[in-house]
Amino acid sequence: MTPDKPERRTGLDQIEPVLADVAQKTDRLIESNGQILVIATRADANAEIAARGVADLTIEMRQRFENVDLRFTQVNERFDQVDHRFVRVGERFDQVDHRFVLVDERFDQVDQRFVRVDERFDQQQAQMDQRFDQQQVQIDHRFEQQQNQIDELRTEMREGFVQVNQKFEQVSQTQQQILTLLLDRLK
């Protein structure tokens, strides 16, 4: 195994564009909710109940999106922590390299010591591999949880939009009935 492990870093780099894309789509959804609110406030007095529902839904969705953004920030912070650990691993490898230089200078005197250093290096490498694998599993699990939560939010949004559309249909029908009544009275 190489000290830098570039194949693992490449996996992290591939997640960041996906996170950026999700954040951009989230912003678009928030903007569309704002547009729905503008349309709802232009409705007549009988539509106030529907407008309040849309406003409450928009506020709730905005809060949920802010929670999602916070979670993405936490994920990014976690990635930064992983990057920092890689830096520390690199520093440890630099220290090991320095020890090997010293061992080469005194090779004839410390044959037995060189064997112990090799054994220790193997143990540390195995421990680091084990820790990295555990952290990778945790990151994958957390990312899967985040994805599930995003999917749930999308489902809730779809259901909310269906309800809003139903409310708008009811408002339109009520307005149509009022217009019909007004026209009948005018005749």
TrEMBL record:
It comes from the Bacteria. This is t-SNARE coiled-coil homology domain-containing protein. The lineage of its organism: Bacteria, Pseudomonadati, Bacteroidota, Cytophagia, Cytophagales.
